[in-house]
Amino acid sequence: MVRAYSQEHTYKHPWERVTAASWRKFADPENKRTLSHILEVDTLSHRLEPSSGKLYTTRAITIHAPGPWFLRKIIGQDICHCVESTVVDAKSRSMQLATRNISLQKFVEVEEKIRYEPHPENPNGWTICRQETSIRIKPLSALASMAEKIEQRCVEKFQHNSAKGREVMERICKYLEAESRGFSA
């Protein structure tokens, strides 16, 4: 079974500021406490396609393994490696991120897609963020009947972490806004 959910959030900041905050989200030391599930982020590749002006980036993200503690004990691993692929199209003002786990795949598959675009009601002042996440716990012989409950716990944890990520994004956007006005936050 697959658990999927989607969320939408409106940032009351322009697209350029929100996407800049997205790039800084994991790098800011102040956010380490809030995003404590993120252990490491490394850029694997980035290229700018001259003809379209699109930026393509791939990052490796190491996180604390998702799910309840007892599942991590059964699996025998506390960390999970993920790959994030990002496409930024400055011409159409769109930023798309797709993240999936590359480790623990025989136990769990997680895919997250995020899209930042100007909000239709205020395209120059607000940004809409649409997030879709799917989580699939693969049946473990002894835990097959518990897979649905484990998926639900994972969804709850991902939603909690998403809220923390939005909090960090808001803080960075406010900092960038103050920086653009010549003030320090």
Automatic annotation (TrEMBL):
Pfam families: PRELI. Residues 2-181 form the PRELI/MSF1 domain. GO terms for cellular component: mitochondrial intermembrane space. This is PRELI/MSF1 domain-containing protein.
